[in-house]
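Exercise 3.2. Students should predict the tertiary structure of the chain below and write it as structure tokens, then compare their answer with the key that follows.

Predict this chain's 3D structure.
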Amino acid sequence: MHMNNRQLFLRHVAQTSDAPLALEITKAQGMYMWDADGKRMMDLIAGISVCNIGHCHPKVVKAIQEQAQSYMHLLVYGELVQSPQVAFASLLTQHLPATLNSVYFTNSGAEAVEGAMKLAKRYTGRTGIIAFKNDYHGSTQGALSLIGQEEWRNAYRPLLPDIQHLDYNDFSSLDYITTHTACVIAETVQGEAGVRVPQQAWLQALRGKCTQTGTLLVLDEIQCGLGRNGTLWAFEQFGIVPDILLLGKALGGGMPLGAFIADKEIMWCLTNNPVLGHITTFGGHPVSCAAGLAGMQALLDEQLIPAVKAKEQLFRNCLQHPAIKEIRSLGLMMAVELESFPVNKQVIDYCISRGLLTDWFLFSAESLRIAPPLIITEKEIKEACGLIIEALNKVKR
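Answer key:
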């Protein structure tokens, strides 16, 4: 019996849920993807904030092709001078505060989280880590230990010890940060909680308490970094600088890449006692770094970030409907809260049937995710909002 790709996918590709979307995509370009039947679909979630400059940006594709012809994997990360890593690390640090000057490239955001946890414990000589309820930091064992929801953690216990989960955006939580705490890790803007934006005063107080106790502040901008919130880095809008910055998702321009970034003085402790304190075979892969470099240059050159706030406002203006309980957003990272997950799922399914891909949030299933490529046009925003309103009018409650 000859099986088609969908059947082979369900049979041989390890599944993450019992009901995957199972759309067979054969091409993606800019704002759009095409399925095996040639149907075009607008991407309203950018591969979960990965494709900030759209799918298959020509400059990224060219950089990948050129680097693949020069060399791919040579040796484990850190031993050889590889120009894509050097150039990308240099570009990143040129656009970061002076204390964020040393870049450790990883394969993914979750691996950046793991590296930062080790770095904080090693540098401070402390063991305690504080994370926040409803934060999402990845799915590996260490990152999972930080995830701020017990339902997701419980099935995989025992997890890492000495981790506390506090209330995000709550001033009384700061009392728990002590001289025992190696680091506090927080999403600058909570993503999977359904786009929860903290008070500026709270983030500044968090920064102050970390400084006072000698605790490293780790900001996770894996989902919200690289322009999504209307500035290159979300922390710029809150008037603080982290000790360690975590990047991923959009960092590779569509290729797998993550990074944790700190001051060289902090990062240096991974080089000794023991040597090779943190190692990775494929971290900072030259093709991924070449893609990420081209992607970030395109993001800056094409002036995509200054237009983000106006596009956010247009979405808000167009998404007016009695079924919408609340819209939470910072830039082109938006959560449209509806009555329930069943209602949201009907909207998502209807939008997909009409050629608009959207999704829900892990810790806010009743909220519709809107995080399109930053290249989305006014016309496309109005078209997408029109389909969402159409879906809301057809929902059965």
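Discussion points: The chain has a mean pLDDT of 96. Residues 378-394 form the longest helix (17 residues).
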